[in-house]
Amino acid sequence: MAFGIDKKKLADWKKAIDSGEIAFITHYWLDSRFPEAKTVTKAGAKDLDMLASWGEKYGLRKEWIHIRKDGYSHFDLLGDRQIDILKKEGLNDHLIKFGLIKE
Asked: Are 80 and 39 in contact (CB under 8 A)?
């Protein structure tokens, strides 16, 4: 279950994807399969080859892409990998807002 995200943030994420970018959105998330994870970051793109190449530099495998018919395919980033990737992508605002690091 996702929460802690508003319609504007979601629309901005989709707009960035539609414009050809790799876009990031982080929100609170509860899933019994991942009880230690309280947040998830979705790293999405329209171009699946571009997304796969981007993910490869972080050790993400192409088959881990959640392929969506609506065009908003993405990797789900969780835990330490989520924190590491957000830091390397310069997205400290995501880390701070969701309490993944302290300011």
From this structure: no
> Tens place of pLDDT for every residue, the chain, 103 residues?
556 778 899 999 999 999 999 999 999 888 888 888 899 999 999 999 999 999 999 999 999 999 999 999 999 999 999 999 999 999 999 998 888 876 6
Instruction: Give how far Cα 59 sits from Cα of 55, 62, 85, Å.
Output: 6, 10, 10
Could you tell me the residue ranges of all domains in the chain?
2-97
What residue has token string 């508003």?
6
CB 34 within 8 A of CB 64: no
The number of angstroms, rounded, from the C-alpha of 63 to the middle of its chain's C-alpha atoms is 16
